[in-house]
Amino acid sequence: MEEITRIDTVGQYCAASNNETYHPLVSLVDLSKAPKRQNSRTVYGFYTIFLKDIKCGDLKYGCNYYDYEEGTLVFVAPGQVLGVENNGEWYQPHGTALLFHPDFIRGTSLGRNIRDYNFFSYEVFEALHLSDSERKIITDCFSMIRYELERGIDKHSKTLIISHLEVFLNYCVRFYERQFITRESAHKGLLERFETLLEDYYVSDKPQTIGLPSVSHCAAELNLSANYFGDLIKKETGKTAQEYIQLKVMDVAKEKIFDTDKSVSEIAYELGYKYPQHFTRSFKSMIGFTPNEYRKLN
């Protein structure tokens, strides 16, 4: 198996890329200064965002490849493994890497909200493709961060850098929402396929062997990461993927309740619930009646 390189600190990454370390916890790295590389797999101990200038190999994330082009942002969270494969040939990286360590944002508004930026958990093939105008905004954000880093650290530095990071990430949220629309053809029929997947789930033995359908299971079946899938469904329906699944489960439950030969407990197990009381509680919460009350009413 190919060896995985671990880089735990921002300083280590800067040194390996022949860049000066202006701050031990946050940096902007000019990748063109880095030495030439071959195939590699690396796990980082910090948040990393790559803005690629030219194509220089295929990114590999898990078992998937993404053939990235100019003007692409790739987001990597701490602990994720990112690989670059280039048929064993040496290549010169180009572009910019924005790095910030979890310790830098700890106790700040960004630290409290970092989990809201779902794209750090997207697969590489779900990267953000920038238009020319969007790229200009991103490079302007980078320039503001670079200015703060190069002018030296003072009592205002952290506050200003955190603010610029939040502006940058919020623009990325906007640009991803644009991408969900402009790349609609790539996701055409997703909702229909999701619906079919849930219908097939309940005519199989999966509820008994797996349990209730989960967002991660459905996303994997549709070849998407759970967060990207969830964001697409929210954009399409206004509901989270979990809410959509729960509504489907309740629809199936209503049909089964009309079969008076089955007890509520039997129906609960058929739906994938481990415990009947959990089914009763969920049904009452979403429908307004217990399963038995609903059966009597209808």
UniProtKB/TrEMBL annotation:
Residue span, HTH araC/xylS-type domain: 192-297
InterPro entries: Homeodomain-like_sf (IPR009057), HTH_AraC (IPR018060), Tscrpt_reg_AraC-type_HTH (IPR020449)
Keyword terms of this UniProt record: DNA-binding, Transcription, Transcription regulation
Gene3D superfamilies: Homeodomain-like
PANTHER family xrefs: ARAC-FAMILY TRANSCRIPTIONAL REGULATOR (PTHR43280), TRANSCRIPTIONAL REGULATORY PROTEIN (PTHR43280:SF32)
MF term (GO), any: sequence-specific DNA binding
The protein's name in its UniProt record: AraC family transcriptional regulator
ATP-binding is among the record's keywords: no
PROSITE patterns: HTH_ARAC_FAMILY_2 (PS01124)
Key word Transcription present: yes
UniProt organism field: Flavobacterium silvaticum
